[in-house]
Predict the 3D structure of the following.
Amino acid sequence: MLRRYGSPHHSRSQSVKAQRSRTGERQLLGLPQQRARVASMPNTGVEEEYYRLRHFSITGKGVVNRGDSLRSRRSRSNTSVASSASSTEAVTRASAPCSLASSRDSSAGLSTYRVLVLGGPGVGKSSLVGQFMTSEYLHAYDTSIDDESGEKSVCVLLAGEESEITFLDSPPDNMISEGAAHGYCVVYSTADRASFAEAERRLQILWAAGHTSRRAVILVGNKADLARSRVVPTDEGKALATSYECKFIETSVGINHNVDELLVGLLTQIRLKQQHAERVRKRSGSRKNRSRARSPLEVDTTTTPAPASAASTPRKRTRLSASVKVRGLLGRVWARDSKSKSCENLHVL
């Protein structure tokens, strides 16, 4: 017995029947008209420009990638009519503490930073910057990526504050010495000894110009996944970063290792450096105000030494100078050890 699948009262063969006219001619089925395609983005009547916003958070386990999202640039403006989600985001950014002395977009209060990516050829600078732009995995060993040098910008949301970072790949030497950047990434390949020497030369230029103390400088050992081809040990790269008073991290664009950590650490170092400079400026200003408020009598009283016997004065000075020397030596040793330990921690100064 032949069974039909489906409802016993309504078979598939009877679902669509062609109607016949009274003259016996078969009429074609009336198909619905083709609907025109519409854009997936909301139609507001105004052409909008969207950008990618990368969201990160720092937890006890490290950097957590919260994903990427598309945002409208019109929502940054305070005068534009934004959606409820955009309005909530704008309120969150406005309520966050903003004590950074950085370049800001006047319409939205957006912090903008410039970072120079330095290093020898073939170390993966362009591939590293390209991976900064998205959470999606890029083919790191595509040789065409190395030719895409120039400026690239990415927006990052970290600690409730949105910032835009512009990376400049292979800038000229005069731009490096002038200090026209908020941060520097000095990249070398762990499989290339010559690139490590080039990175040390770049660090010497930055250190001589005083940028290592005032700017965010990170030494990056890229291609850490090439274990069999490694010629620069991790300890050697760390020692070089410690000697030039900068941070250190090893990355691998090939397996997307520590790329997000470098991006977040770079932004964190820029913010910390600017906050430290602001505190130093305020402290020096308060000292100047206190010195101006002093009367000449108070200054003479503080500068005049207390009377002491001739026999006891040289002995006290000798003991004092010896203790100062010991404390200074211990302080330098402790500072060197602390810098070595915090060299790989990109979230502290």
About this structure: The chain has nine helices and nine strands.
